[in-house]
Amino acid sequence: MMNLPYGELAIGQRARSRGRTITETDVVNFCMLTGNWLEIHANAEFSAKSRYGQRVVQGGLVFVISNALLGFDSEVVEAFYGVDRLRFLKPTFIGDTLHAESEVIALRDKGEAHGVATALLTAVNQRKERVMSCEFSLLLRRERLIVSPDE
C-alpha cells in the first residue's frame, strides 16, 4: 500500500503482507547489531525460567521486520516520518511467523511535492494473535521519482 504515490492513497485502504518466520539467526544478528544482549533474548536457560518459558524476540526486531514486510517502493517513499503509539501486545518467539496488516488512517499534505501518510500497522502471528500495533508514518512523493539509466 505504501508503494503508491501520495495522491493515489485514500483513508481506509488496506493491505496484508506475505508471512515471514523469525529465526534464531535473526535474533542473534539483532543482538550483535544493537548490543541488546538481554538474557530474555539471548540466554535459553535464563529465559526458560521467565514468565514466557523461552526466549522472546526483541520488540525492535518485530517492529522493523513488520514494517519492512509491507514492501515499500523507493520511487515513492521519500523518508520514514515517524511512529506513534507503538505497543507490543503479545510476545513473539523464535519460530513464529508474522505477517503485517495496514490501514491508511491519515493523510496530510506536506508541501507541493509530498504528503505524509499514516497507517495503522499491525503484526499478526500464525495463531492470528496481534503481537504489535503502531501508527506508522511515511513522507511520500506525489509523483514517482523516475531516474533514467543514463543519469
Automatic annotation (TrEMBL):
Q: Which SUPFAM superfamilies does the entry link to? A: Thioesterase/thiol ester dehydrase-isomerase (SSF54637)
Q: Name one Pfam family in it.
A: MaoC_dehydratas
Where does the record place the MaoC-like domain? 11-119
What superkingdom heads the lineage? Bacteria
InterPro entries, alphabetized = HotDog_dom_sf (IPR029069), MaoC-like_dom (IPR002539), MCH/BMMD (IPR052342)
Q: Which PANTHER family match?
A: BETA-METHYLMALYL-COA DEHYDRATASE, MONOAMINE OXIDASE-RELATED
Name under which the protein is recorded = MaoC family dehydratase N-terminal domain-containing protein
Taxonomic path: Bacteria, Pseudomonadati, Pseudomonadota, Betaproteobacteria, Burkholderiales
